[in-house]
Amino acid sequence: MLRRLQRWLFGQADRPAVTEEQWARVEAGLPFLTYLPPDARSRLRALALEFLDQKTFHGAHDLVLTDDILLSIALQACLPIYNTGLDAYSQWVGVVVYAGDFVIPREEMDEDGVVHEYDEPVLGEAWPDGPVVVSWQPQQRTDGLNVVIHEFAHKLDMCNGQADGFPPLPADMRRADWARIFIAAYHDFCHRVDHDLPHAIDAYAAESPAEFFAVMSEAFFEVPLRLRAAYPAAYAQLKRLYGLDPAAGANPRPTHDSNPQEH
């Protein structure tokens, strides 16, 4: 199928069919998708194929992008825009995929005006109006860290300007509610990180409100019960933004006591 998919991506053929066997194989590597109801899984697949139709992929350093890699990235990339649709990604076309982490040259000016150049190893990067760069991990993590969801959450955040943790909201959501809830959650999280207190998500979220939103988005899809327990109000906002409720699918069925008692 790879050759047909590549020809389709370059406009040389009709969209190839993806077999149920292949969907199942790819989705098995993304176990958090089992939290979604069947109708959501179907819509996500359709969005993933449209995403592949609209974007140009490049494997860095001769990385061969197989069909399974492309489908996996597309499924994860479409989670943040499941509710809003692919128009949110309309201002850019490129996706660059590295095998593992990669290095990006940086420049930073100190207080004396001296510019320091250095190389920073990263797992992903997203630029306004530019490409998304992600690393491909053959073994997907299941601990709430997901570089693909993270970078595409940044892309959603950038739809109304620079990434600042305040993405465009659906018409039925109030900006004031989002700001109040996420600012409070961010301050609480930073306090926990600064004082070595337990925290529910990756400490990198304390870097900025933009990183907090992206890391919260990773956790929303991958470890929704943990996120909902730690920040229920923020989880509810993400639930409305993304139009999905992963915690409902992740929550085990309650066990009923054979002799219930009232207390």
TrEMBL record:
<dbReference type="GO" id="GO:0008237">
    <property type="term" value="F:metallopeptidase activity"/>
</dbReference>
<dbReference type="GO" id="GO:0005829">
    <property type="term" value="C:cytosol"/>
</dbReference>
<protein>
    <submittedName>
        <fullName>Zinc-dependent peptidase</fullName>
    </submittedName>
</protein>
<dbReference type="Pfam" id="PF06167">
    <property type="entry name" value="Peptidase_M90"/>
</dbReference>
<dbReference type="InterPro" id="IPR024079">
    <property type="entry name" value="MetalloPept_cat_dom_sf"/>
</dbReference>
<dbReference type="InterPro" id="IPR010384">
    <property type="entry name" value="MtfA_fam"/>
</dbReference>
<dbReference type="GO" id="GO:0004177">
    <property type="term" value="F:aminopeptidase activity"/>
</dbReference>
<dbReference type="InterPro" id="IPR042252">
    <property type="entry name" value="MtfA_N"/>
</dbReference>
